[in-house]
Write a structure and sequence with these properties.
Elements (H helix, E strand, L loop, with lengths): L7 E3 L3 H10 L3 E4 L15 E5 L14 E4 L17 H5 L6 E6 L11 H13 L5 E5 L4 H10 L9 E2 L7 H6 L3 E4 L2 H10 L3 E3 L7 H8 L4 E2 L3 H7 L17 H17 L1
Parallel strand pairs: 1-2, 2-3, 3-4, 5-6, 5-8, 6-7, 8-9, 9-10
Length: 265
């Protein structure tokens, strides 16, 4: 109230939208999953989404929708600075096959328990392999503690590690041989970097994930049988360049925000 902002911008911050709606501050919701729920008090004034998401799936009218090319991860993916010491910091040998795993978001409103079954099935399969390490990134401390206590064998001899502190996510993906994840952003970051990525997300398939699968940049895994047949536990060449590099997404997002600010000034 003291600063009197002209516009509030977020990527899915429902709390910000509620507050701004109460204070009559215009809001821009940047989003990339059309099945996220926004009840009436949480609805934004403007929406900004990737071009592949249809207007019909959004809550704003067409004149209040702005589109940008690519995916949100394209905004920042080209800023990654590769760290040649990254694996050593995690205690992982360059000769080991490295898999980054993100469990399903069990506390999200769109969670489907089928994703948990796929996660468990993959972890059990991976631990039958030799010279393979897993970096596991739980959603929060509660989920990490629950996984450790339920499946302690996964953590014997540090076959699976949960980093003690936050790590550079893009470097982790870049140094991985493949990614298996129940989460959207990590899957899309891996796809943007050209890393083999397998989605075990079992909620409604969003337009972005369908688009990435159609382009061969992401593989959706829907059954335990597909965990065994589709997910390839093989090493990749980590010496190439990231798969995508474009500033069009960022420039378009900034231009749209500037245009919207001018309408409310």
């Amino acid at each position: 109230m003291r600063e009197k902002p002209d516009l509030a911008v977020s990527h899915g911050a429902r709390s910000q939208i509620i507050l701004c709606n109460l204070l009559r501050i215009p809001t821009v919701l940047i989003a990339d999953y059309e099945f996220a729920q926004y009840p009436p008090l949480m609805r934004p004034v403007w929406e900004m989404v990737p071009e592949v998401i249809p207007d019909s799936s959004l809550c704003c009218s067409s004149d209040r929708i702005r589109k940008y090319p690519g995916i949100k991860e394209d905004v920042y993916i080209d800023r990654m600075k590769r760290d040649p010491e990254f694996l050593g910091k995690l205690g992982i040998s360059p000769g080991e096959l490295l898999v980054t795993v993100r469990p399903p978001a069990t506390e999200a409103h769109y969670h489907n328990p089928e994703g948990e079954k796929l996660f468990i099935h993959f972890m059990e399969r991976a631990h039958r392999e030799q010279d393979l390490r897993i970096v596991l990134l739980p959603r929060n401390g509660r989920q990490g503690d629950a996984i450790r206590s339920t499946w302690p064998a996964w953590f014997h001899n540090a076959r699976t590690i949960i980093p003690a502190a936050a790590v550079d996510g893009l470097n982790l993906l870049w140094h991985s041989d493949l990614v298996v994840s129940g989460g959207g952003t990590m899957n899309r970051e891996a796809a943007a970097l050209g890393i083999p990525v397998y989605s075990i997300f079992r909620g409604k398939t969003g337009a972005i994930d369908q688009h990435l699968q159609d382009e061969g940049l992401l593989i959706m895994v829907q059954t335990s049988e597909e965990v065994d047949t589709k997910i390839k536990l093989v090493r990749r060449n980590r010496n190439g360049a990231p798969g995508r590099s474009s500033r069009r997404s960022l420039v378009t997002v900034v231009d749209h925000i500037s245009e919207i600010v001018s309408k409310h000034s």
